[in-house]
Specification:
This is Bifunctional diguanylate cyclase/phosphodiesterase. It comes from Rhizobium tubonense. Pfam families: EAL, GGDEF, PAS_7. One of its GO terms (molecular function) is cyclic-guanylate-specific phosphodiesterase activity. By secondary structure, the protein is of the alpha+beta class. It folds into four domains: 112 residues, Beta-Lactamase; 107 residues, PAS domain (Beta-Lactamase); 157 residues, Reverse transcriptase/Diguanylate cyclase domain (Alpha-Beta Plaits, 2-Layer Sandwich), CATH 3.30.70; 248 residues, TIM Barrel (Alpha-Beta Barrel). 44% of the residues lie in helices and 24% in strands. Helix 11 runs antiparallel to helix 12, helix 12 runs antiparallel to helix 13 and helix 18 packs parallel to helix 20. The protein is elongated and about 165 Å long. Bound molecules: ligand LFPHGCPZ.
Length: 679
């Protein structure tokens, strides 16, 4: 027969030991032996608690007994009247001993193997300390609030971010308390109500959201909310002030011109597109393309620093002409755009354009320099001239082109007919840029004759352009374009070098005259180019003549005069071309010791018809004679004109009567025949 209580005891998972009042073992089970692993025969009914205590030598750690004492188990059995626990380690296993006093003065002791539980507790403790370390070391603030907006926990970074005292970081602190405190210290959300009502409520309702919140102290905090499963939310707080500022700055830079601070082309396009899309409310848009006149001269002569200061000053003046709602942008260089929404488009745009022209026409005083520039303006209007930004900009630019060619410092409205002309001109410009590399230029030479002997004494180099589609293009058409685009500088340099090379093969003292454009004087390397053209070709300086018009001295006269003196000091002769067509040809004779005056063909043409012209020619020749300057009559076509200029005392003649401009091969042939007949 089995003892039923023993069967029960042997089938429970705990080790059981029952001690009587004398602390002797009265009852125990097999599980006790399994846990304590006593040597054979040590555990038996009647054995003392002391013997059992000897089997459990190592205390894992003492849990607090109900009396709060931590004492040796045996001592406690003698002294304690209430249950107590002890964790001990037996043979590597953690065993929880629970000692419960029995009514007869004895003890019921249970032994639980809690090794697994103890491992989990340790793991949990480790995890908690890792979590604490992570929280404390997080660069961002972190906080958890329950569903009632009471703080569950927060980390040091959160407290530091808002300068919170320790008291407000304790569990249970309400969000309102925290925000009230932040309100006082000046770092609460600038729009607290919105933050509270919208952001927090959304988080509590389960929305994951990330939002930048501006604080009253100017900082921007990125707050990311994550709802928690059991209500409440966890939020990270990151100070993104610097990042937001940098982003704003990058955005500003992408849309603005760094020099003037004005919107750039990209931003202009955005604004214009927006305005055009808004259309349809009866209002129109006037778009004004502005280009400064002679700005390049300022850069070339006074330097880029002064040019930059001028652009800033121009910007201020342009802005001062605008009214509320008008927009301005700088497209680059000296190009600006203004657009305005207006009702009476042309009238309002004219009035704005005139204000702008007047403002820029006023003298500028920059860095000790007095500067005169102007502005040319092309205007296109929407919807009449187009309703897309690209089209409007193109049409305003076309009108600008017209404003520039009709004298500058003025404005001009777009007209459809302009488009076709300008397209042709643009195409010519593209072709002209290509012409030099494509070797489409050729120099023709027109003879210059001694009036007395009627012998050829030299030739004038006159440029011709063999256009692949249009055939020979007149210099009257492409030289002004080359001057407008600045291409005259490389083209003029090519003419000079090529003409010197060609003339070097002609018999001395036959000379060569080359035209110089005013723009070539701005390059500052002109004198050097002349020297190298002479050196490369081997032509004597005395056989080279350079023809300039008074416009060279009109702008930038000091620098141009210095260059002229330098070139003349080489032995090169300087001729004043088209004499009498400008305003102050005479006064320029006092400025520079010209070697030759070329009387413009308009006077020669009129010699037989106009007494005035005859008198002018006579006066110029007399002036030349008294100053020791050679005079050449240009455009002599008839024997009658020849007779008259000879009568007036003109020393040299050039004109169709003695020969039209000829290609090099024909000139060489003429010269060959001349030297053969002279031999
Ligand atoms: N900067 C440069 N300018 C140049 C160069 N090559 C030419 N040009 C200038 O282009 C203008 C037109 O030149 P072109 O068509 O060659 O006309 C010249 C002569 O052909 C013409 N001429 C000469 N004699 C007569 C005549 O009896 N009748 C008549 N109707 N025309 C005649 O005059 C032009 C020469 O002018 P000028 O230079 O003033 O002596 C012209 O302004 C050229 O200067 C160049 O390489 N660089």
């Amino acid at each position: 027969m089995f003892n039923s209580s023993q069967v029960i005891l042997d089938n429970v998972s705990q080790g059981i030991a029952v001690l009587d009042a004398d602390l002797r073992l009265t009852l125990f089970n097999d599980r006790l032996k399994e846990l304590l692993r006593p040597p054979e025969g040590v555990i038996y009914t009647g054995v003392s608690a002391k013997t059992i205590a000897a089997l459990i030598p190592v205390h894992a750690h003492s849990s607090q007994s109900s009396s709060g004492e931590s004492e040796n188990w045996l001592t406690k059995l003698h002294t304690c009247l209430t249950p107590f626990h002890q964790e001990v380690v037996v043979d590597g296993r953690v065993v929880l001993m629970t000692s419960i006093p029995t009514s007869d003065g004895g003890w019921l002791i249970t032994f639980d193997d809690i090794s697994a539980l103890s491992g989990m507790k340790k793991e949990l403790a480790d995890q908690n300390s890792r979590f604490d370390a992570a929280l404390s070391n997080m660069p961002h603030g972190l906080c958890m609030f329950d569903a009632d907006k009471n703080l569950l926990l927060c980390n040091i970074a959160y407290a530091r971010l808002y300068d919170l005292p320790e008291l407000l970081t304790l569990r249970g602190t309400s969000l309102t308390q925290i925000l009230d405190y932040r309100q006082i210290t000046g770092n609460a959300p600038a729009r607290r109500d919105t933050y509270f009502d919208v952001v927090i409520e959304a988080a509590l309702k389960g929305s994951t959201a990330s939002q930048n919140i501006s604080l009253a102290d100017g900082r921007v905090i990125k707050i990311s909310h994550q709802p928690m499963v059991n209500g409440g939310y966890v939020a990270t707080h990151e100070d993104v002030t610097e990042a937001v500022r940098a982003e704003e700055q990058i955005k500003h830079m992408a849309g603005h011109d760094p020099l003037t601070g004005l919107p750039n082309r990209t931003l202009l396009r955005e604004k214009l597109d927006r305005e055009l899309a808004r259309g349809g409310d009866g209002n129109a848009i006037a778009l004004l393309c502005l280009d400064l006149d002679h700005f390049k001269d300022v850069n070339d002569t006074l330097g880029h620093a002064v040019g930059d200061l001028l652009l800033k000053e121009v910007t201020e003046r342009l802005k001062s002409c605008l009214r509320e709602g008008d927009n301005i942008a700088r497209l680059g260089g000296d190009e600006f755009v203004v657009f305005q929404r207006c009702v009476q488009t042309r009238r309002q745009a004219s009035s704005l354009a005139q204000r702008l022209v007047d403002a820029i026409g006023e003298t500028f005083k920059i860095d000790g320099h007095t500067i005169h520039i102007g502005v040319s303006i092309g205007i296109a209007t929407a919807p009449d001239d187009g309703d897309a930004a690209d089209v409007l900009l193109r049409h305003a630019d076309t009108a600008l082109y017209r404003a520039k060619s009709s004298g500058r410092s003025t404005y001009c409205f777009f007209e459809p007919a302009m488009d076709a002309n300008i397209q042709v001109r643009r195409k010519l410009e593209v072709d002209l840029r290509h012409a030099l590399v494509a070797r489409q230029f050729e120099i023709y030479y027109q003879p210059q004759v001694d009036t007395a002997t009627e012998q050829i004494i030299g030739f004038e180099a006159l440029l011709r352009w063999n256009h692949p589609e249009r055939g020979l293009v007149s210099p009257d058409e492409f030289i002004p374009l080359a001057e407008e685009t600045g291409l005259i500088v490389p083209i003029g340099e090519w003419v000079l070098r090529q003409a010197c090379k060609d003339a070097a093969h002609w018999p001395a003292p036959i000379s060569i005259a080359v035209n110089l454009s005013p723009l070539q004087f701005r390059s500052q390397t002109l004198a050097h180019t002349v020297v190298s053209a002479l050196t490369e070709s081997g032509l004597s300086a005395s056989r080279l003549e350079l023809e300039i018009t008074e416009s060279v001295l009109l702008t930038n006269s000091e620098a141009a005069l210095a260059t002229l003196h330098h070139i003349r000091s080489l032995g090169v002769r300087i001729a004043m071309d088209d004499f009498g067509t400008g305003y102050s040809s005479l006064s320029y004779l006092r400025l520079f010791p010209f070697d030759k005056i070329k009387i413009d063909q308009s006077f020669i043409r009129e010699l037989g018809h106009s007494r005035d012209c005859a008198a002018i020619v006579k006066a110029v020749v007399d002036l030349g004679t008294s100053l020791g300057i050679t005079t050449t009559a240009e455009g002599v076509e008839t024997t009658e004109q020849l007779r008259r200029v000879r009568e007036q005392g003109c020393s040299e003649i050039q004109g169709y009567l003695f020969g039209k401009p000829l290609p090099l091969s024909s000139v060489n042939e003429v010269l060959r025949r001349l030297s053969a007949s002279a031999a």
